[in-house]
Fold this sequence. Notes:
The chain contains ten helices and seven strands.
Amino acid sequence: MSTSAGFDAWSAGQNYEHYMGRWSRQIAAKFIEWLAPPTNADWLEIGCGTGALTAAILARCSPRSIVAVDPSKDFIAYVRSAIEDKRAHFEVGDAQNLPAKDGTIDIVTSGLVLNFIPDTAAALAEMQRVLKPDGLLCFYVWDYPGGGIGFIDAFWKAAAEVDPRAAALDEGRRFPFCTQDRLAAICREADLRSLTIEPIEIETPFPDFESFWQPFTLGTGPAPGYCVSLAEYDRAALKARLGETLGTGGPIRLSARAWAVRALRSARN
């Protein structure tokens, strides 16, 4: 079993909404509140997905414009249908070839994406390329190594008990740099200025066990991708183990934590 992105199926917009979208919207709002960015700015967003962060920026930041890119054609089609604000423009694109000229963007951002970009250093360099001299570079990632998404952490722990090979797919193992210290080191290597990294948290309640389990059966994302790859017997065993761990008789209340990063473009760019 590979530890690569074999199960990172980020394409079905509606399935993503059921699995992660509702939590993405909540953490995006928390991030914007923490960031307190300037108004009337030109934004560029990397990995917009179904538009959680885009919508928060449009609703809370009074931007002049926002260009949002994502490598998934399905996500771009979904977000274009969901967000009709004329200030927003959506394009299929990736973090290492951003659709902007040098030094033209006020704020470059991304939400829950940086860990899925193969070359983080190259992405940060490209983000700085398009920023104005005092432009703001900001992003946030889930605290995977710290068990930062309780429901995903519970899933992978149960999966590893049923199938020891699943441990290699756990995002906590795959994305070890998603910690405060490692993110700080990466940003300092990129020569970013005025660096601030702080945790932001939300609650992720589920009314019952079936509401917790059902999004994992939709196939969108690493854990759901792994879940639907299992034979029916193995999937039932995983469900049973999760039920033993979390309980099946009432609500399930877990939390989620992300690391929020804010910095200014390097003076050398």
